[in-house]
Amino acid sequence: MLPSQPLLHAAVFALAVLQALASDTFIAAVYEHAVILPDATDEPVSPDDALALMNKNMDVLEGAIKEAAQQGAHIIVTPEDGIYGWRFTREAIYPYLEDIPDPAVDWIPCTDPTRFAPAPVQERLSCMARNNSIYVVANIGDKKPCNSSDPSCPSDGRYQYNTNVVFDPQGKLVARYHKYNLFRRETQFNYPKEPEAVTFETPFGKFGIFTCFDILFREPALALVSELQVDTVLFPTAWMNVLPFLTAIEFHSAWAMGMGVNLLSANTHNTSLAMTGSGLFTPEGPVAYHYDSETEEGRLLLAELSAHPRLSSSY
Predict the structure, then answer these.
(1) Domains and CATH numbers, the chain
(2) How much is the pTM?
(3) What are the catalytic residues?
C-alpha cells in the first residue's frame, strides 16, 4: 500500500532534516530573475489580471526552484519585486497585494488555502516549497487594514508593505519581513512603525532576512548580525549598479566579509535599469556570483556553504 501524500511529504522532509543535521554545510541557491513587468498605469487592474501577471513570473520562478531542488539545494532566494515588478502608484499596486498573517499562526497555505483571506500567491509559493522539499524565499506585497483610531493610518484605510516571506520544505510560512528602509521611489508602500528583526532556525543554521536598501542601515541589518548572531542573511534585492563602490557584487561581497556571515543575494535582472548582480557570498569571499549587463536572461546559482561560518577554522 502506498503512503498518503501528507505522510510522503513528512517522510521526505524528515529525511532532508537528517541529511542536513549530518553535515556542517548546506547547499544554497539564488535566482536572478528577468521580471515580466506590468503595463505602466495609474489605475488598478482587475484582481484576475494582476494574478495572471504574477502567475507568469511564478511560472519562471517555479522552474528555477525545481532545478535547484533537483541539484540538492536546501534553500533558494528569489528577488525583490520578482513576482509583480514595479511601475506602480499606491492605488495601482493594490490588486497585487495579499494579507500575509504572522507566521505564529502555523499555516501551510498549500494544504489549507482557505483558512484566511484568499491568498493564491502564498498558496502557490507554499506548494513550490512543499512539492520540492526546499525552503523558498520570495518577495510579495502585504496589506493590513487600519482605521481612524490609529493616527498613522493612511487616508485609504490600509497599510501596504514590501514584504519577504519564507516557506519551509513542508510549505509552512516560517518568516515574514516588512521592509523598513524604503527606497525613495517606493511611494506605493508604507514602512512599519518599528524595524523588524526577523530570524528563524533551520537544521543548517540561524537565518535572518531583510530587503535591498535595508543593507545600508543599522536597523535591521547590523542588529541581525551583531545582536542576534545569525549565520546566514537572506537578501532579495532590486539593486541598480549606478553608484561608485555600490555595485552589487563588490558591495555585497564586502558586506558579507565585514559582517562575518553568509549573504544569499538574489537580484532582479533588467539591463535598461542596470539591475544585475547576484551571488552566494561568505566571510571568505564570493563562492558564486553572476553579473550580466548584456542579455535579458535569468540565472540560477548554487553553492555549498558553511552552516556556521563563524565556527570555521578559516574565519
Answers:
(1) 25-311 (3.60.110.10)
(2) 0.91
(3) 80, 179, 212
